[in-house]
């Protein structure tokens, strides 16, 4: 069979319950290899950043009463792309074979003779109770668990849920997809003999920073749901184990629990800040306002890199500059010694760390993470008169550093290693989510993130405050009439996270 006519393949991949840390390694591998990625409403949209830039991404979300594509249309879509010889990833919330209709998609693929694999995922039926502090089994309370769905095929003439059997078997019972019918389901359970005061918990958006938990009893859970305006997606747990939540809840006790924080760094760089905030319980919206691109004149920068051995000092002002420099350097040379005797200066620990990852020793790292600090360090060392200095920096960066070094007698070449441009894409729907749901805090890690966020002209959510990584970024924010609520004392990502944590502790 020719390359053009051979069939592709499909991976039915469980995206887990929402927490990125609960996605399996195999699931991440599949996303990274996808040529077509078809994903659901319950998938964490941050998983999309692992897909290759060339991958076609299709949203096939199905919410209650709002289906983007029907199941038949999804099946046809998978068959079409696989028939074109492509590697297709069908990304499904939770586990594809646990109330996820993955079995129907697998049957369609099998019938068409298309090879497929199933990548199990952590089901919200197990993960959400764990994050709510509710163990599904306990030696003194429950030795078995029953899973059932509250949302059955509407074409069925009668429910296949045997409420009589549920009443007899007891133990812990977990229901997925039934929050809209909780009144009717609780009524059926009570009419079949389940006691009225049975503890019940509903967990909305379990394992994520949006997690909310509602606890009641079988006879009043419907009223509590209505009063609280509780809506899908949610998992319900029926049983004595719900009582353990009072002592075992842990996720909501994290320092940033209940806080929604916007991260505006580039899509590639957002991960470090986002993961640290999520680890503290925050609900993070990654809304990149900038992206890093090659400089306008790559040839000019390449010529400076090629002559790096002729400089006394090479100054790096950011990890992006380090990446751009050494990407070019190793295209030109295959021996690190070609950098010659140049000494290396780095502004900020992240820049220094990136240099160390390239096995480059940092000779000068000022205590403060701004250009002014490196100027003071050079003065302490006796100045830079007649020394040749290469600055690997961004286009349109502040001119303070080259200007002052030149005034000190240095022979300065500005190497424009990269440029920051406005991020125009919004593949994860982050902008819409910010407008619809608002946020407590927005983080700015550079002047360009401020400028490009303002340029989006999004409505400013009520009560959203600003956290800045340092004085230069704060100055830019104020120039755009933004009030800075808190500024990192240490001007790097760990410093910003520590400042945010302290801000909400006060």
Structure notes:
It is a single chain. This protein is α/β, with parallel strands linked by helices and about 500 residues long. It has four domains: about 10-120, 3-Layer(aba) Sandwich (Cobalt-precorrin-4 Transmethylase, domain 1); about 125-250, 2-Layer Sandwich (Methyltransferase, Cobalt-precorrin-4 Transmethylase, Domain 2), CATH 3.30.950; about 260-290 and about 425-505, Rossmann fold (3-Layer(aba) Sandwich); about 305-420, Rossmann fold (3-Layer(aba) Sandwich). The protein contains 18 helices and 22 strands. The strands form five sheets. The protein has a five-stranded parallel sheet with strand order 3-2-6-1-7, with helices on both faces. It has a five-stranded mixed sheet with strand order 8-9-12-10-11, sandwiched between helices. Strand 8 (about 145-150), helix 5 (about 165-170) and strand 9 form a beta-alpha-beta unit. The model has no long low-confidence stretch (mean pLDDT about 90).
Quick overview:
With 506 residues, this protein is of the alpha/beta class. It has helices at residues 25-33, 71-83, 102-111, 124-131, 163-169, 182-191, 221-228, 245-248, 270-279, 298-306, 319-332, 349-357, 371-380, 400-407, 430-437, 447-456, 471-479, 493-505, and strands at 9-14, 36-39, 56-59, 62-63, 66-67, 87-92, 116-119, 145-149, 172-176, 199-204, 212-217, 234-238, 260-263, 283-286, 290-293, 313-316, 343-346, 388-394, 411-422, 441-444, 465-468, 484-487. It folds into 4 domains: 9-122, 3-Layer(aba) Sandwich (Cobalt-precorrin-4 Transmethylase, domain 1); 126-252, Methyltransferase, Cobalt-precorrin-4 Transmethylase, Domain 2, CATH 3.30.950.10; 260-289 and 423-505, Rossmann fold (3-Layer(aba) Sandwich), CATH 3.40.50.10090; 305-419, Rossmann fold (3-Layer(aba) Sandwich).
């Amino acid at each position: 069979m020719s390359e053009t006519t051979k069939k592709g393949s499909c991976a039915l991949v469980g995206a887990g319950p929402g927490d990125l840390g609960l996605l399996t390694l195999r699931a991440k591998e599949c996303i990274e290899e996808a040529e077509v990625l078809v994903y659901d409403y319950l998938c964490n949209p941050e998983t999309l950043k692992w897909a290759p830039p060339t991958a076609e991404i299709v949203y096939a979300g199905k919410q209650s009463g709002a289906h983007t594509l029907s199941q038949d249309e999804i099946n046809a879509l998978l068959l079409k792309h696989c028939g074109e010889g492509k590697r297709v990833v069908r990304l499904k919330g939770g586990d594809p074979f646990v109330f996820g209709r993955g079995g129907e998609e697998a049957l369609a693929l099998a019938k068409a003779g298309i090879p497929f694999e199933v990548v199990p995922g952590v089901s919200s039926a197990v993960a959400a109770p764990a994050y709510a502090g509710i163990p599904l089994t306990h030696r003194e309370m429950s030795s078995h668990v029953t899973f059932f769905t509250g949302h059955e095929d509407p074409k069925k003439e009668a429910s296949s849920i045997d409420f009589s059997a549920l009443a007899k078997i007891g133990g812990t019972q977990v229901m997925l997809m039934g929050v809209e019918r909780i009144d009717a389901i609780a009524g059926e359970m009570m009419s079949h003999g389940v006691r009225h005061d049975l503890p019940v918990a509903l967990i909305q958006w379990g394992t994520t920073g949006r997690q909310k938990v509602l606890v009641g009893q079988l006879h009043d859970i419907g009223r509590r749901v209505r009063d609280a305006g509780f809506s899908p997606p949610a998992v319900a747990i029926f049983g004595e184990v719900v009582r353990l939540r009072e002592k075992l809840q842990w996720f909501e006790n994290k320092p940033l629990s209940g806080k929604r924080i916007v991260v505006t760094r580039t899509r590639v760089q957002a991960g470090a800040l986002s993961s640290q905030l999520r680890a503290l319980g925050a609900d993070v919206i990654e809304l990149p306002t900038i992206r890093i691109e090659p400089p306008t004149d790559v040839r000019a920068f390449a010529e400076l890199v090629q002559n790096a051995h002729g400089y006394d000092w090479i100054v790096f002002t950011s990890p992006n500059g380090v990446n751009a420099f050494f990407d070019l350097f190793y295209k030109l040379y295959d021996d690190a010694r070609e950098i010659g005797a140049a000494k290396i200066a780095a502004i900020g620990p992240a820049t220094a760390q990136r240099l160390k990852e390239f096995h480059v020793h940092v000779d000068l790292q000022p205590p403060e993470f701004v250009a002014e600090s490196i100027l003071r360090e050079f003065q302490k060392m006796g100045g830079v008169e007649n020394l040749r200095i290469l600055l690997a920096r961004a286009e349109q960066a502040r001119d303070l550093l080259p200007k002052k070094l030149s005034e000190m007698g240095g022979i300065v070449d500005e190497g424009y290693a990269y440029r920051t441009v406005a991020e125009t894409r919004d593949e994860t729907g982050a902008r819409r989510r910010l407008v619809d749901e608002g946020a407590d805090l927005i983080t700015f890690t550079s002047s360009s993130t401020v400028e490009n966020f303002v340029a989006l002209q999004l409505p400013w959510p009520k009560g959203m405050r600003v956290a800045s990584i340092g004085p230069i970024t704060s100055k830019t924010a104020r120039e755009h009439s933004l009030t800075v609520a808190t500024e990192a004392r240490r001007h790097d990502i760990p410093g910003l996270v520590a400042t945010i944590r302290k801000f909400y502790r006060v």
